[in-house]
Amino acid sequence: MRASSRTGNAVPAGGPGRNCALCPRLKAYREENRKIEPSWHNAPVPSFGAKNARLLIVGLAPGVRGANRTGRPFTGDYAGDLLYATLKEFGFAHGVYAADPKDGLELADCRITNAVRCVPPQNKPLPLEMTACRPFLQASIGEMENLQAVVALGRIAHESTLRTLGEKLSAFPFGHGAVHEVTEGVRKLQLFDSYHCSRYNTNTGVLTTDMFRNVFAKIRATIG
Ligand code: URA
Q1: What is the pTM of this model?
Q2: Is residue 20's pLDDT more than 90?
Q3: What is the mean pLDDT of residues 56-79?
Q4: Ligand 1: centre distance to CA 61 (Å)
Q5: Residue 159 maps to a domain
């Protein structure tokens, strides 16, 4: 165990271990998946990207056949197709995204993490599980010395980020395209909200490609 540099909270260095047992339901689901698909990652999915990035993207949780299978956030998930294409368009990623951690895709000044590191049944983490995993999000934010902007993908990621920072939820209502100035320790961060780039949201038109692109255009215009 070590203390996160900015938050002072003791969490395992490098995130939760492969057999993290903080959430009994998620542990049981992981063990089930390990039996059915032993070649899959089936473990907490680590953040992707360098700690010195200025931008952090916070997703919800790994998808069972996506990040839980491949071990890289949004990789192999339907949501990853739109996310990585958009990151490439705005210069936050370079290379080819081939839905495989070995595709060589590199993030540029950007890091991706999830509010919950383990795959939840039906893609729905419980409030207790969000709370249990929060120290890892807190540590990820705390160790990013150059962090300027956070993108919350969806209301749950937005609320988890606010709770992590100790901010009042009522002071920063979630809204697609909203930008909030939040505080982490002695520094200010810009929190950008977006609807989650899930298959459901894109198929139902809740989130269009342009709506998603506009969020990243705003981030680029803000952090340069
Ligand atoms: N895959 C992830 O890693 N996170 C999400 O929020 C969705 C899919």
Answers
A1: 0.95
A2: yes
A3: 98
A4: 5
A5: yes
